[in-house]
């Protein structure tokens, strides 16, 4: 997903594309544009504003630091979600939160589950955005898992 912003410098307007997915790691090649299109589909399904979520692709090393800092768990994980204000979003919120994804861990998980890396990355984007919508599979007695399965089916994403 790109957002367009037009600026006028003299006689010609300049169009600037702003991506909601930023690749801050270099170990695993990732095709961003297909993920941006998927992000947009999920965003619409969840009713989030166009600029509501940013996704950063980060290294295992950076993910391990975040996992230790925010969850007190050692080592990297595949995806972390950081809700704005630490709570579920208000209806129509312009900013919902951020998601961090480690493509290194995603690649290992994709191999373990016999999936492609792009399929695994879509699953992680969906999972992270559902967390930002206020769901928590660790406390909700399966509600998030059921909702995620329904969305995976609707969006054509392989299951685990």
What does this entry look like structurally?
The chain has 5 helices and 6 strands. The relative contact order is 0.15. It is of the alpha/beta class and 160 residues long. The chain is globular, with a radius of gyration of 16 Å. It has one domain (20-155): 3-Layer(aba) Sandwich (Collagenase (Catalytic Domain)), CATH 3.40.390. The longest helix is centred in the C-terminal third of the chain and has 16 residues, at 117-132. 41% of the residues lie in helices and 21% in strands. The model is unreliable at 1-9 (pLDDT under 50).
Topology overview:
Blueprint: E1 2-9, E2 12-19, E3 21-23, H1 32-46, E4 53-57, H2 60-71, E5 79-83, E6 97-101, H3 103-112, H4 117-132, H5 143-155
Parallel strand pairs: 3-4, 4-6
Antiparallel strand pairs: 1-2, 5-6
Helix pairs in contact: 1-4, 3-4, 4-5
* SS elements, strand count: 6
Fourth-tier CATH superfamily name = Metalloproteases ("zincins"), catalytic domain
Shape estimate: globular
Determine the N-to-C terminus distance: 26 Å
What name does CATH use for the topology?
Collagenase (Catalytic Domain)
Uncertain residue segments: 1-9
| Spatial order of strands in the largest sheet | 3-4-6-5
Radius of gyration in whole Å, from Cα?
16 Å
CATH architecture annotation:
3-Layer(aba) Sandwich
Helix count? 5
Identify the quaternary structure here: single chain
SSE order in H/E notation? EEEHEHEEHHH
How many domains would you count in the coordinates? 1
Q: What do the pLDDT scores average to? A: 88
- State which percent range the strand residues make up: 15-25%
Largest sheet: 4 strands, mixed
Supply the CATH class.
Alpha Beta
Helical coverage, percent range: 40-55%
Q: Assign the structural class, choosing from mainly alpha, mainly beta, alpha/beta, alpha+beta, or little secondary structure.
A: alpha/beta
């Amino acid at each position: 997903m790109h957002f367009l912003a037009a600026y006028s410098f003299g006689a010609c307007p300049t169009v600037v594309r702003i991506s909601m997915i930023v690749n801050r790691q270099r170990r695993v090649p990732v095709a961003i544009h297909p993920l941006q299109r998927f992000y947009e589909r999920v965003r619409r399904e969840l009713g989030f504003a166009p600029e509501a979520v940013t996704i950063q692709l980060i290294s295992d090393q950076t993910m391990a630091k975040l996992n230790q800092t925010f969850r007190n768990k050692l080592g990297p994980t595949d995806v972390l979600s950081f809700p704005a204000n630490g709570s579920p979003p208000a209806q129509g919120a312009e900013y919902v939160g951020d998601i961090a994804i480690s493509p290194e861990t995603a690649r290992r998980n994709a191999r373990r589950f016999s999936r492609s890396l792009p399929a695994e990355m879509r699953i992680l984007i969906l999972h992270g955005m559902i967390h930002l919508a206020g769901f928590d599979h660790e406390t909700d007695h399966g509600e998030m898992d059921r909702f995620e399965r329904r969305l995976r089916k609707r969006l054509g994403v392989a299951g685990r």
